[in-house]
């Protein structure tokens, strides 16, 4: 069985840490490089519920998309919720490794997994990485919808294909509009509207869209917006990442067991349909 350092080296080859944004905090949060690894859990958020899931599974490694600590810290006391996660991990010999914006920019990356979950055909990155001569890496993806469907059908399709959350799918635009091309960005995507407009797509699938950027995007063009829960747009990456590690494990004869967390860690837990009309 491989040592943690060997598994981390394989993960770093998939998502090179130097490709993360400057502000990001990716890499190994805790773990002994010499410890053996037999079981790995992949998840979006390193929250206590997910850490407990790793303990229950007997995992030696938890790989998450979101960092536990994004800025410097002076305490891992178990009286803080992040410190409690660190204590639970270390007491149970579980390493934590983070692949965040380095996984966003990878090929395949977070948005490829989102496109795959929606059965979309990726034609290229939405914001190409200037350091990639092949032009395959970058943020977001531009995709084709085959066969095309109208916006109402496309939203139903997304609701069926993405894991269920309280939010479900929010939609902006004419429900009868035919959707042939889509830009997708797993996670918060309202900083990419300029690139989405430049791509000339019929719809944009992302998460966390705020009032003003969404409203302005609608004024500029008939661009349809499909907004899912942040967690739901990134969860397909956990499945993709587990499959990538399975393939590496088979190649090396490591015999790793990989798992994908089924815990819904989106912070929104309920949805009430409006019952009062202002008009
Ligand atoms: Zn995210």
From TrEMBL:
Keywords: Metal-binding. It holds the Pfam family DUF34_NIF3. The keyword Ubl conjugation does not apply. SUPFAM superfamilies: NIF3 (NGG1p interacting factor 3)-like. Gene3D superfamilies: NIF3 (NGG1p interacting factor 3)-like. Homohexamer. Belongs to the GTP cyclohydrolase I type 2/NIF3 family. NCBIfam families: YbgI_SA1388. This is GTP cyclohydrolase 1 type 2 homolog. It comes from Streptomyces hiroshimensis.
């Amino acid at each position: 069985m491989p040592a943690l350092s060997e598994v981390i080296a394989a993960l770093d080859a998939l998502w090179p840490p130097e490709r993360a944004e400057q502000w990001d905090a990716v890499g190994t949060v805790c773990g002994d490089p010499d410890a053996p690894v037999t079981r790995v859990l992949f998840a979006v958020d390193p929250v206590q519920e997910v850490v407990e899931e790793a303990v229950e599974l007997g995992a030696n490694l938890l790989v998450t998309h979101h960092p536990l600590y994004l800025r410097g810290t002076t305490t891992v006391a178990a009286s803080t919720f992040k410190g409690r996660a660190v204590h639970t991990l270390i007491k149970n010999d579980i390493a934590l490794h983070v692949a965040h914006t380095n996984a966003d920019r990878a090929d395949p990356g977070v948005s490829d997994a989102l496109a795959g979950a929606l059965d979309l055909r990726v034609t290229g990155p939405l914001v190409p990485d200037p350091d990639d001569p092949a032009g395959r890496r970058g943020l977001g993806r531009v995709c084709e919808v085959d066969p095309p469907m109208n916006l109402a059908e496309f939203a139903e399709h997304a609701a069926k294909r993405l894991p269920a959350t309280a939010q479900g799918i929010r939609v902006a635009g004419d429900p009868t509009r035919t959707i042939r091309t889509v830009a997708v960005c797993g996670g918060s995507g309202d900083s990419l509207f300029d690139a989405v407009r430049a791509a000339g797509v019929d719809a944009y699938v992302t998460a966390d869209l705020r009032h003003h950027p969404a409203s302005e995007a609608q004024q500029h063009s008939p661009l349809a917006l499909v907004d899912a829960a942040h967690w739901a747009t990134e969860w397909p990456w956990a499945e993709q990442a587990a499959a990538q590690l399975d393939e590496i494990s088979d190649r090396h004869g490591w015999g790793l067991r990989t798992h994908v967390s089924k815990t819904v860690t989106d912070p929104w837990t309920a949805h009430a349909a409006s019952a009062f009309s202002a008009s």
